[in-house]
Amino acid sequence: MKNECVESYLAGQHSKDKLESLLKDSKDELQNILVDLDLNELAAKWHKNACVFEYLVEDSTAGVIIFYANDPKKSAAFITLVVTYPDFRKKGIGASLLAAVKDYCRKNGFLKIKLETYSEKLMNWYEQNDFYLTGKTTRLNSSTEMQLTYQMEYKVNHESEKKCHC
Length: 166
What we know:
Elements: E1 4-9, H1 16-25, H2 39-49, E2 51-57, E3 60-68, E4 76-84, H3 93-107, E5 112-117, H4 120-128, E6 132-140, E7 146-155
Parallel strand pairs: 4-5
Antiparallel strand pairs: 1-2, 2-3, 3-4, 5-7, 6-7
Helix pairs in contact: 1-2
């Protein structure tokens, strides 16, 4: 693909309106996650507290990753959302976004990156990207159905000088 890059925005630097638009555009893909959530409140929370890395292809958003890196002890950052838009899937964009977060965490002294996923398929994808399973829980979702959640973790390697080549 031509003219690709990852734009990064630390907490408070990205547009709340853009985050709201992202949530609305992604609602179909995120229907299991965003059930009963106020999208405006969520966008405001992300704007205030989260880092956003956006993968751009010719000025169009191809994917985005949102994570919290606000632990004062820097023991763990937490990925809350990874989205690659349908037209851009299977092109390594999600992996590039994960690599950018890993690089950010390495440079900023974080020890681990944690996340949760509800999909076994995504759990396998995260494992292919060096995350490992730390636990499973079953929770009641908003539809009063039992839902399996996979907790995953990545140990940040501070010895490595690998850079994100996006």
